[in-house]
């Protein structure tokens, strides 16, 4: 008996039974583990779905803050606090530590009511349902002023040039523009051309036209500006305008050779309609005569709206003294060399009724390194001569009024400004022509 129990056949059966037992034991363990894993995976998916469903979109324009629309966190993305740095404009950066690493998501393309557009924050792995993920860097601007005006448009977008410089000239992949939370996908051509020149053509405006207006778009990286220039220091503003000026000239192939320029260039900019000169020919003759009294003074006159952007860049390169009535065309001053001069003229009624906005070109001159050489204010309102309420008439129509002239004052004013330019133009202008210095205007663009 003992010999049969230890026979090879018995040992084989024993091995087979052991293998079968081990198989069923492993199968049982595997089924138990798989069931547990499926339970965990289902639980994780359930949590992700709950997190995704918990993402809350809030109105881009928060009407609760309509009385303090531009203060602090503003009424645009009102739940988010700005990053504040010494000498810099306030801005938002997403994702960031302040957002707990969450991305910015935007929804809606309403162009008439910003409260119908919305925003939310979400982690990259848990985006809102049906969201479109956009790689790269996105610049988002919200302005309280329309983008169809040269002054307002450049004022809203110039802070991004500072971000561009700080980020070692990293180019944005797209732009999103809002006016009081209302989407804008067009901008006045002059500002568009300036931004294209500055950012080497990278000025693509997002229109949110992706399978319907309710599809959220989430951005890998976003910088948001909602204070325009904000607290940007004078030194940083001048650095920005130096770069924009240099980039515009390079874009337009303007030869920047100070020795080839006239000793002094004086340019009169004209406009049609409101704030135009009543007699543009007479005003032209007055300032031309003043220029002719100075050796090597070259006089030019132009309607900017009849010129291309690059023609305006070239005209301003040859301009040391800019003369114009108050209006968006005066923004061209930032294309002149530093330390150039601006002479500004107003119709009657502006001083009393226009408010602080009448001083914007004083500010721009200071910010861009120019000299604002004062203003002349017309004291005649011919349209109100026969009114029984002259003050009321002036107040109602001052925005649309034309500008007259005073030949003796204009001649003396021009003489003083020309004298200042003659005394300062020798080495000062040449040393300030391209203060950015080095390379492609000192900022060689990179694109990730």
Overview of the structural elements:
The structure is a single chain. This protein has 448 residues and is of the alpha/beta class. It contains 12 helices and 13 strands. The strands form 2 sheets. Strands 1, 2, 3, 4, 5, 6, 7 and 8 form an 8-stranded mixed β-sheet that branches. Strands 10-9-11-12-13 form a 5-stranded parallel β-sheet, with helices on both faces. Helix 3 (150-166) packs parallel to helix 4 and helix 6 (280-292) packs across helix 11 (407-424). Mean pLDDT is 87; it is low at 432-438.
Percent helix? 25-40%
Strand tally: 13
Poorly predicted segments:
432-438
Please give the count of helices: 12
End-to-end Cα distance: 83 Å
Mean pLDDT: 87
Name the quaternary structure: single chain
Radius of gyration: 33 Å
Principal-axes geometry comes out as elongated
Topology:
Blueprint: H1 2-5, H2 8-53, E1 58-59, E2 92-94, E3 103-107, E4 118-122, E5 132-143, H3 150-166, E6 174-179, E7 182-184, H4 189-198, E8 217-225, H5 234-251, E9 264-269, H6 280-292, E10 297-302, H7 309-317, E11 321-325, E12 341-346, H8 350-353, H9 360-368, E13 371-377, H10 390-397, H11 407-424, H12 428-432
Parallel strand pairs: 5-6, 5-8, 9-10, 9-11, 11-12, 12-13
Antiparallel strand pairs: 1-4, 2-8, 3-4, 3-8, 6-7
Helix pairs in contact: 3-4, 3-5, 4-5, 5-7, 6-11
């Amino acid at each position: 008996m003992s010999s049969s129990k230890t026979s090879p056949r018995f040992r084989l059966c024993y091995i087979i039974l052991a293998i079968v037992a081990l198989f069923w034991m492993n199968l049982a363990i595997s089924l138990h583990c798989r069931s547990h894993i499926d339970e965990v995976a289902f639980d994780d998916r359930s949590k992700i779905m709950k997190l995704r469903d918990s993402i809350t979109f809030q109105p881009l324009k928060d009407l609760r803050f309509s009385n303090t629309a531009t203060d602090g966190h503003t009424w645009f993305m009102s739940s988010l606090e700005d990053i504040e740095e010494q000498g810099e404009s306030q801005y938002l950066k997403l994702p960031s530590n302040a957002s707990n690493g969450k991305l910015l998501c935007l929804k809606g393309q309403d162009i008439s009511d910003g409260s119908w557009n919305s925003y939310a924050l979400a982690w990259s792995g848990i985006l809102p349902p049906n969201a479109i993920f956009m790689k790269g860097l996105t610049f988002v601007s919200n302005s309280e002023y329309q983008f169809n005006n040269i002054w307002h448009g450049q004022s809203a977008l110039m802070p991004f040039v500072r971000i561009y410089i700080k980020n070692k000239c990293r180019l944005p992949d797209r732009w999103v523009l809002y006016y009081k939370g209302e989407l804008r996908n067009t901008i006045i051509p002059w500002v568009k051309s300036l931004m294209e020149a500055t950012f080497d053509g990278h000025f693509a405006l997002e229109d949110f036209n992706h399978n319907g207006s309710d599809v959220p778009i989430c951005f890998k990286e976003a910088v948001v500006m909602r204070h325009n220039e904000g607290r940007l220091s004078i030194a940083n503003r001048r650095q920005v305008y130096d770069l924009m000026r240099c980039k515009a000239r390079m874009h337009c192939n303007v030869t920047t050779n100070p020795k080839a320029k006239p000793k002094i260039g004086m340019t009169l900019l004209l406009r049609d309609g409101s704030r135009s000169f009543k007699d543009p020919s007479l005003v032209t003759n007055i300032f031309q005569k003043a220029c002719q009294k100075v050796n090597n003074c070259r006089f030019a006159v132009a309607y900017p709206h009849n010129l291309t952007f690059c023609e305006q860049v070239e005209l301003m390169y040859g301009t040391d003294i800019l003369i114009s009535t108050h209006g968006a065309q005066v923004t061209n001053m930032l294309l002149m060399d530093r330390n150039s001069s601006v002479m500004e003229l107003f119709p009657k009624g502006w001083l009393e009724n226009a408010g602080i906005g009448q001083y914007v070109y004083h500010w721009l001159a200071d910010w861009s390194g120019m000299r604002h050489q004062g203003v002349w204010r017309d004291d005649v309102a011919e349209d109100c001569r026969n009114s029984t309420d002259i003050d009321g008439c002036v107040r109602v129509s001052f925005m649309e009024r034309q500008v007259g002239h005073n030949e003796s004052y204009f001649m003396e004013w021009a003489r003083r400004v020309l004298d200042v330019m003659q005394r300062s133009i020798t080495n000062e202008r040449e040393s300030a022509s391209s203060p950015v210095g080095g390379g492609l205007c000192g900022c060689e663009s990179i694109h990730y």
